[in-house]
Amino acid sequence: MTKRIILPLLATCALALPGCGQAAESEAAADTAMEAAPATTGTIVDVAVGNPDFSTLVAAVQAAGLVETLSGTGPFTVFAPTNAAFAKLPAGTVETLTTTETETLGGILTYHVVAGNVMAADLLAAIEGAGDAGYAITTVNGATLTARVLDGAVVLTDAAGNSSTVTATDVPASNGVIHVIDTVVMPG
């Protein structure tokens, strides 16, 4: 895409990419995520705790022992899966990860986190600069996600080749930013 296409796309879809053709279920989750995003008074964890659509994510962050880290100074960019995203995992996966495989869970969760403030405009510019191969995002667990714009939406591809669509962007927090995604991404 050229800069002339991406910048207007960003302007029209700045906070809710669902308007660019996402499913109604994703739209509801994105709308709720945006409503629960207060001014930058709370940390990423505070923003997630304040939104019922992130209750599974919050429970997972607690089980993995990442509350203190994600409440720290940052800045962090979190690609935050909604409850509906976690529900797409095979039955029993969340329960197993949050009870007996918390180390694995920590690796999965840190695959959703990027060091620094990566705003939607910056991500779109990086995708444009990367060309057809997509933009490789290095996460805090050391693995990469590939970001592309497909059908007007930012799509992340994980190490296994699975995709997740960004459904809302630039949800502010005092220590970073949250972008809402519709599928849990896996590091490998």
From TrEMBL:
SUPFAM superfamilies for the chain: FAS1 domain
Domain FAS1: 41-185
Record has Signal as a keyword: yes
Highest taxon listed in the record's lineage: Bacteria
Signal peptide: 1-23
Keyword Coiled coil: no
A Pfam family recorded for this sequence: Fasciclin
PROSITE patterns linked to this entry: FAS1 (PS50213)
Protein keywords: Signal
InterPro entries for the chain: Adhesion/Biosynth-related (IPR050904), FAS1_dom_sf (IPR036378), FAS1_domain (IPR000782)
Protein known as: Fasciclin domain-containing protein
